[in-house]
Amino acid sequence: MDLNERELLQQKYSDVSRKLELANTQLEAANKKLKEYEEKAAKAEKASEMKSLFLANMSHEIRTPLNAIEGFSRVMVETDSQEERMQYMEIIESNNSRLLSLVNEILDLSRVESGEIVIKNTSTDLNYLMSGIKQLFKFRCPETVSLVWDKPALPAMMNTDENRLTQVFSNLISNALKHTPKGSITYGYEIFNDTQEIKFYVKDTGSGIDPKFIEHIFDAYASKDAEQQRGYGLGLALCRIIVEKMGGHIEVSSQLGEGSTFTFTLPFTGTVGGILVTNRTNTNMRTLRVTTPSEMHAMKTVLVAEDEESNFELVRIVLQKRYNLLRAHNGIEAVTMNEEEHPDLILMDIRMPEMDGLDAIRIIKEVNNKVPVIALSAYAFPENIREAKAAGCDEFMAKPFKVEDLIEVINRYIGS
């Protein structure tokens, strides 16, 4: 073999080596991509399974309180005992709260996944909030489980989102109830780090959590409860997102067979100790009764614009002994009756036939800007509230609303 042939052969060998090296690199990249696709496919399949379980459990969670509401509503009508009626009413109220909480969590998860969760901080009496949580679970704890509030020596006022804080506690206690057939659930708070931080906690004596699952317990749709059909598997995920949005972090410690402790820590701004002034009453249900009906001519007039009969009937029953009520079935009637009757206040549904509430509010405010208008709507996202305020409404109340809250709002504008 002469020199030229050897050089040619070496050149070919070098070319083949480069091509082989390139092929190996491409193969390695392809294998890496394949592995990524397989992992994504596995995750997608797992997510699909968990969402199917989520929907199945959701059906159960919605139907359960609805069954109690429907059943006890019927039974309450049939009984003549006032004591039994109050007992049934408390059961219905408890299941109403449970159902509303579930609906709110579903909507929250949808908004969280699209990045639309909003934190609204106000001065919050933490002891009042903790006591309210006790009332919230009054009829949800079985006799074998005691719910204990660790009341601190000094009360605290905190600048925080009261509704979101209540939601986190509600989810954590609900989760504890699913795993604590008997024993106790203890909750409370403590301020530490020279009052710079506050730690909230929920501790149960239940079954505990498998260490292999703890790292995934705050993942959406990855709840072990959903796999076992013991819950709807999104409460803990919402807790993590809310707490992090509020500038804190959440964690859990647990021992199988001994129970679990969930803690979440937030920055603290507020006051500790001193005299706390509040005009709220710490009762589970405020009375709606009027002892002596006023004379009709002395009553203030309230125009109720509402197309749904059941919704108007509720308002009528609550307000008829306090105010002279007028009824409009749509926005056009509301505008006309406002000009003819000159009501002292208007309750305005937003979605109505003929003319919706927003257009009616705009026209009414052009005619008489001084008449208070309270918008009542089941469309209660922030953008809906902004639209109503932009149209001219003075107050916005989301449906379903507490009737005692409606009474307080009306009383604030025109008295009782």
SS elements, strand count: 13
Gyration radius from CA atoms, angstroms: 30 Å
**Mean pLDDT over all positions:** 82
Sequence stretches where pLDDT stays below 50 over 5 or more residues: 222-232, 274-287
Strand order of the largest sheet: 2-4-5-7-6
Describe the secondary structure blueprint for this structure.
Elements: H1 3-78, H2 82-113, E1 122-125, H3 126-136, E2 145-150, E3 156-160, H4 162-178, E4 183-192, E5 197-204, H5 211-214, H6 224-227, H7 235-245, E6 249-255, E7 259-267, E8 270-272, E9 301-305, H8 309-319, E10 324-328, H9 331-341, E11 345-349, H10 357-367, E12 373-377, H11 382-391, E13 395-398, H12 403-414
Parallel strand pairs: 2-4, 9-10, 9-11, 11-12, 12-13
Antiparallel strand pairs: 1-3, 3-8, 4-5, 5-7, 6-7
Write a concise keyword list for the protein shown above.
alpha/beta, five-stranded mixed beta sheet, five-stranded parallel beta sheet, 12 helices, 50% helix
